[in-house]
Every structure is written in structure tokens, then in C-alpha cells.
Amino acid sequence: MxxxxxxxxxxxxxxxFTMGCAKSKSGSDNTVNGNGTPIAPPIIIDPxxxxxxxxxxxxxxxxxTSAFSPVxxxxxxxxxxxxxxxxxxxxxxNINLASAGSGRYxxxxxxxxxxxGIQYDGVFKSGMGKNQSFxxxxxxxRLESDYNYWFNFExxxxxxxxxxxxxxxxxxxxxxxxGTSTVGNDGEPILTGPYxxxxxxxxxxxxxxxxxxxxxxxxxxxxxxxxxxxxxxxxCGLNPGAEAGYQLLGTFDSVDINKAFNITN
Length: 265
Hints:
Layout: E1 50-51, E2 64-70, H1 73-80, E3 89-101, E4 104-115, E5 118-126, E6 149-153, E7 156-164, E8 168-176, E9 195-203, H2 230-234, E10 247-255, H3 257-260
Antiparallel strand pairs: 1-5, 2-3, 2-10, 3-4, 4-5, 6-7, 7-8, 8-9, 9-10
């Protein structure tokens, strides 16, 4: 995992909703050295990170925007990776998804913050189409957003899904804010109250090795761009799991699900 320095010992995060799940596995075995210590790939400068120069508030034309609360500055530094943070503020998350068919949702999730007077936007995407078909490749013809859907979990309607940018992947988890919801069929949600969310992240171990343009990281079975999580794929829980290389980045609440998923009543 890319990081500039250890600022503090990271807070231990309680494992949420993982009972009954098989252990999450990733085919990538090149994230640690033989002695178990993390491999630190070269730090690179993100040429596209600063956005909206001269502004201090992100502007999103659609979707649902909420305040975002990172776990800590140390975790936020690990996530950012491409430049050290000074005194970041005004954290926001925007969820802008749409139906990709068969109850799946693609689109993008944007995590933004202000630091040193510059607005930064991290945009993570999941495609709206299908995987291209090639001889000898896995998952031909599957929806690119095949793991992004609503499902019933412990008598609640919840959502989990994968998204990626060139530096890593995130998963988002949406659960009823007040512990209640209408339990409906998988697909378009039937809601009775506000939702809250969790963002988990996993940085790629390198950004220099070739990354297939034909498969997202959740369809990548080995190597530095493998971001799979058994929990998210099988929907047996809501936390992608440390075993798959993920850690909690932060939380948010008061999501407008109709806006976030572009649902028209």
C-alpha cells in the first residue's frame, strides 16, 4: 500500500457484517515481502488530481452528495498516496449511478476534499456495458457492473459494489440509517427511510505494470490489479475484508437514494 510515512497507529476497525462468509481471497501475492512487510512501490505524481482550480466547493451536476468522514488523516494519506496531505477539509462524496440492466448499477463515485486551497476529486467508476468477448478470457459478456446490486441481508435491503480508478479500487456499502427498511426483491430498491454508507479502499500495488483495458479489477484474477473480494462478489456480508486487502476509508450518511441511483418514481 502506498504511503509517505506512518503518522499514527491506525484505529482497529470492527469487522462489520461478515458472519457466515468464506474468507475473502485475492489472487495477487505481490503486495508483501517474504517477511510479511508491505511492498512500497514507487510514488508517482497524479497529473489530474487537482480539479476546479480556484474553487473551494465541489460542484456535482447530478447524483446525491453527502458529507464524508474519513477514519483518520493517516488512513486518508494512505488512500491519497500520490501527494502528502496538509490540512484537508470539506470532505464530500457524490454517488451518481444508473441501471445497467438486470438490477445492476454502473456509474461513478467521487470522493472530494480541499487541501492547500486546491480542490481534489477522486473519481471511481464501474462500466455500464458488458465485458468484451475474447477466446481464452474469463467473464466474457458479463455486465461490467455485475457485482453492483441491491440485495436482502439480515432482513434489510442493502447495496454493495466495486468501483475503480487508475490507482486503486473502492467498495461502497449502503445500509438503512435507522436500522429499518422495506425488504423488497433484488433490483430497484423500495425505501422507507434514509441510508448511510461506508467506503473501503484498496490501492493497486503498482501503476506501471500493464493493466488490461478489457477487464475491470474485480474481473482480474491475479497480479497487482486484482481487487476482488469474495464478500462483495457473493453478497455474504458488507465489509470486503482485510484478507482481500481492503480497509475502511470513511463513512457518510443522509444519502438520497433516488438521486444517487437516478430512480424516477
